[in-house]
Specification:
The protein is α/β, with parallel strands linked by helices. The protein contains 7 helices and 13 strands. The protein is rod-shaped.
């Protein structure tokens, strides 16, 4: 297992409280999806369920489905609330009808062969649009993750994160993310905002490791950072137990098994004595008092 870094971007804590409150114990109405082209109502209903699934995956949210909106509009003989066409006043009226906090409205469009869903969330209390995003329609497991990501961008942007884990070949390396000093190796991986980030890993006895990393929602990005020791310091790093063993599958570091002979006390003491005696002889030959004694 590689040694793993923990990364905490400074901006992670700077999202406003409104975003967090949008997700906490809220009621959200999903308005019936409209379309820029002629689209079968059955398909629009299926797309609405994709939106609802993403919202429900956030937790602590009561979702009023588009199907419930259609049923209520027929019961009240009020067809306008199911065809708001993005009009804020109509969307707000729909939200008040269900005593909800927010309304999510979607409009189906396209870009070439790709179908895009344009989404926005409206605050029922103020009648203002809070945020907007897009959702690319596909199929399979990726669609579930994409719908959750879109719901997160709308109602809980402070949770729109992925995970970054970095392995470092030298213990004690310093990590910088987007110019901010974060930690020293080793540490555990943590959440990082989705997007591109500048990663730099430094150590005073190695060349810097620099690259950009892309963080995806709900996924872990793993970086295996091998720092190149500067000329002449590779053995010193190994001797001090700071250089990871590249041939090992564990977190074990290369350790010095025994102290080399030139580092042992008797070698150092003998060398010091030899230097002192040599110095005394030289001084004596230069006219220094020959009776000078040197205590060792």
């Amino acid at each position: 297992m590689p040694i793993v870094l923990r990364i905490i971007p400074i901006l992670f804590f700077l999202i406003g409280s409104t975003a967090a409150n949008a997700q906490s114990s809220s009621t959200v109405v999903v308005a019936p999806v409209s379309s820029l082209a002629q689209t079968p109502s059955k398909k629009l209903a299926t797309i609405a369920r994709v939106i609802e699934s993403g919202l429900k995956s956030l937790g602590n949210i009561k979702v009023i489905t588009a199907k419930e909106v259609v049923s209520r509009s027929r019961k009240d003989n009020n067809p306008k609330i199911r065809t708001c066409e993005g009009e804020l006043a109509c969307i707000r009226t729909l939200g008040k009808l269900f005593n909800s906090d927010f309304v999510v409205y979607g409009e189906l469009g396209g870009l070439g062969t790709t179908e895009l869903l344009y989404l926005k969330v409206v605050d029922v209390k103020t009648g203002k649009e809070l945020r907007s995003t897009t959702l690319s329609l596909s199929s399979g497991a990726e669609q579930a993750l994409a719908s959750k990501a879109a719901a997160t961008r709308l109602l809980a942007p402070n949770q729109h994160v992925g995970t970054l884990a970095v392995s470092s070949s030298i213990v004690g390396s310093v990590l910088f993310l987007d110019g901010h000093k974060i930690a020293k190796t080793p540490t555990k991986p943590v959440a990082v905002f989705v997007g591109s980030h500048a990663l730099r890993i430094t150590h005073p006895e190695a060349r810097d490791y620099v690259r950009f990393v892309d963080i995806e929602f709900g996924k872990q990005t793993t970086i295996d950072a091998t720092l190149s020791p500067l000329p002449g310091v590779n053995q010193e790093l190994t001797r001090n137990g700071l250089l990871s063993d590249p041939n090992s599958n564990t977190n074990t570091l290369i350790k010095r098994n025994s102290t080399p002979w030139y580092f042992r006390w008797y070698t150092i003491a003998g060398g010091a004595a030899a230097i002192a005696i040599t110095s005394a002889i030289i001084f004596s030959s230069d006219g220094i008092d020959p009776d000078l004694s040197i205590d060792l």
